[in-house]
Amino acid sequence: MIALAQSRGLQVRLMGGLAFHARCPDWTARINRSGRDLDLATRTRDRKALAELLVANGYTADKQYNALYGHKQLYFVDVPHERPVDVLVDALEMCHKFSFMHRLDVTETTLPPADLLLSKLQVVKINRKDVLDILALLSEYPFADDDGGGLAISLRRITEFTSSDWGWWRTATGNLDKLVAFLDHDVAVGELEFGRPPRHDARAQVLALRAAIDAAPKSARWKMRARAGDHLGWYQEPEEVGH
């Protein structure tokens, strides 16, 4: 579908769990997961054409949902395979928000590694699958100042959020602390198996990212919000909407 959209001049990229598998194809633990829904990212100007393309290729639209929320998210179902398809438009907005509309042409097939990482670091109630997705990505990609053509995780992109928004910093660093604890006590045999040694040590990567986030200069707004700390809510509860 992404290749077909690309041939029509549409910018569409994979995000969500399957994007991590696409980025880490040797990660064997991912292969055994069930319930593989599709999460796609696109931009406003391509939203209508992508919706038409999905329907033309056998995907059934949730017309009521799309009429209400289509400006920011579309929902389809591949009925024969019972596979839901979520299409996010311009931005991901859950516990925290980040725009990806200008990041769709950085890499092919998926959002850039830094944006995939942000999509998981923003989850306040992070689960085991989220943790493993992050650790697999960190095991396979180095950090750099920029995206390195999709071959690196851009620290500049990460700190763009964690240095300007204290809430983003609070959630991201809290999750990094959880990753260290997970690696020390909870990771099971085979969960981070690549059929070969990982390219990077996951624990060292987590600690390096935490150090980079903490060392990056913070904005005046960040410093002002930091004074209130956890006494004020720093994230939004994701809206649960039925289909």
Structure in words:
It is built from 11 helices and 9 strands. It is α/β, with parallel strands linked by helices. The chain has one domain. A hairpin with a 3-residue loop joins strand 6 and strand 7. Helix 2 packs parallel to helix 7, helix 6 packs antiparallel against helix 7 and helix 7 crosses helix 10. The radius of gyration is 18 Å and the shape is globular. The chain starts with a helix and ends in a 17-residue tail after the last helix.
Brief rundown of the structure:
This protein has 243 residues and is α/β, with parallel strands linked by helices.
Secondary-structure-based class equals: alpha/beta
| H and E string | HEHHEHEHEEEEHHEEHHHH
Distance between the termini: 22 Å
Number of helices: 11
Level of helix content?
40-55%
- Mean pLDDT score: 94
* Sheet of most strands: 5 strands, mixed
Number of domains: 1
Poorly predicted runs are: none
Oligomeric grouping of the chains: single chain
Number of strands: 9
Strand order of the largest sheet: 1-2-5-4-3
Proportion of beta-strand residues: 5-15%
Set down the secondary structure blueprint.
Layout: H1 2-7, E1 12-15, H2 17-23, H3 28-31, E2 38-42, H4 44-56, E3 60-61, H5 63-69, E4 73-78, E5 83-89, E6 91-93, E7 97-99, H6 113-121, H7 128-140, E8 143-144, E9 153-154, H8 155-162, H9 166-185, H10 202-215, H11 220-226
Helix pairs in contact: 2-7, 6-7, 7-10, 9-10
